[in-house]
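Running this now, will post back.
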Amino acid sequence: MPWQNAIIFEDVVSGNTVDALTDILTLDTRMVKQVSIGFKNTGAVSCVLRVTSKTKKGGVLSNIEVNDVTLTAGSTLRYFSSKFLAETIISTRSSAAGVPTTYSVEYVYEKTH
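Update: finished.
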């Protein structure tokens, strides 16, 4: 069975946005076939979301998968990838300076070993 040599990773991360774009979650997605990430703006004002990938863990070359999408209060965004990537990075910031909001990120992926 294919899942016998696999480990499922899943978790929820939440916090508050700040004015500067800030990495809030970095997933080691080496040896991962699929990753699913759900982002929800749980606050009362808009925030900005970015998803970046790297082909080498800790590398300097990156690719923007989701580029600065504004999420209104209460809205969600789902990101799914079956690309072979070393890292998947979720970043967020407040959409207006000095006006933070809250967020929640849920993710799940299967890692083979």
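The mean pLDDT is 92. More later if anyone needs it.
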